[in-house]
Every structure is written in C-alpha cells, then in structure tokens.
Recover the amino acids of this structure.
C-alpha cells in the first residue's frame, strides 16, 4: 500500500514499523540474533522500548516482519476477493495478489529472513507457529466466505495443501538464492500449485 494513502498518524506508525523491521533484519544478519540487544535496535531507530512493544510483541516478531507483510495482505485479500472454483485456485490467486503488492525490496528481505530462520532455532520455531496461526486464520476466513463450518475437513485440507505448495515454492526458491527474483518465485508458485492434482493421487 502507498503510505501516502494513509492518515498522517497511520503513516508515522507505518514508517516506524518499517524502520524497526529493516534495521532489525540488518542487525540480526550482521551481528546475530542473540547478540543484538533490544536497546541497540531501538537506539538505532531512535524510538523507545515502549514504541517497539506497541509495534511488535517480541524480537522474534520483528525478525519475521517480512512474512507478516505478505500474509497480512493475503488475509485481507481473502476477505474480499470473489471466490469461484477450487479453494486451492483461490488461494493461489490471493498469494499472487499479495506478492504483487509487496515493495521492491521485499524479495531481498524475505531471503534474509529465511536465512535467519535457518540459523536461529528460536526464530524458526516462531515462524512455524506464525504459519499455523495464518493457516487457521485462512481457514476461518474462507469458511466465512463460503458459508462452511471452519471445522470442515475438506476445507482445512485444501488450505493445508495450498500452504504446502507455497512452502515448496518458497523453499526451493530460497535454496537457489532467490533465482529470478520475485518473477522466479511466482513461476515456482504456479508450478507447485499445478502439481497439486497429481500429487494427491500419487501411488506406489
């Protein structure tokens, strides 16, 4: 979203959030997650600890700000998009839309975040919990849109399969150093989702 579209107060909050997220990722990458103190981070951004905790619940959360950028937009899109056909197709459309709304530096930050997760077990564990929370939120929003119970096993599995396809695309892309940039990630995403029908019928 263009920050200029927001009221002044919200623009200030958004800029503070962005500054904290970008500075944290840089410090965590350069110095290490554990070695970087919260005092160092807030001093670098020139904000108070109170401001930090109004913006992010923890160091792990600020480390995963890039993930939050994507999935917040994704969930907002799911809440308003027209849904026709398979849920997996709707999921892909929503992810593609969310990726299209990321800023020019998002892909680079995402790669740095994945590298941080690989090095820091606490951040990786937090990432997995965040993924679980996002999955539940996606199921709930899709259930509300489709008039289904959120405990519907078919809907839950469709979302879980979609998450697995996203993870496959994202992990192979990051393993290859972000080859092709964001268009390269989108190509892998399309390929992974195209493989879903054959994947669920794989047999010995």
């Amino acid at each position: 979203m263009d920050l200029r579209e927001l009221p002044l107060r919200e623009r200030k909050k958004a800029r503070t959030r962005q500054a904290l997220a970008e500075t944290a990722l840089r410090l965590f990458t350069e110095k290490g997650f554990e070695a970087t103190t919260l005092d160092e981070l807030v001093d670098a951004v020139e904000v108070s600890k109170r401001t930090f905790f109004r913006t992010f619940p923890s160091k792990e959360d600020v480390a995963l700000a890039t993930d939050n950028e994507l999935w917040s937009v994704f969930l907002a899109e799911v809440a308003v998009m027209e849904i026709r056909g398979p849920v997996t197709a709707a999921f892909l459309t929503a992810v593609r839309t969310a990726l299209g709304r990321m800023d020019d530096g998002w892909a680079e930050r995402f790669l740095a975040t994945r590298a941080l997760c690989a090095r820091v077990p606490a951040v990786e564990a937090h990432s997995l919990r965040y993924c679980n929370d996002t999955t539940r939120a996606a199921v709930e929003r899709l259930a509300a849109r489709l008039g289904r119970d959120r405990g519907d096993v078919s809907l839950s599995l469709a979302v879980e399969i979609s998450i697995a396809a996203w993870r496959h695309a994202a992990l192979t892309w990051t393993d290859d150093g972000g080859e092709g940039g964001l268009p390269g990630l989108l190509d892998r995403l399309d390929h992974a989702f195209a493989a879903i029908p054959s994947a669920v019928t794989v047999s010995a």
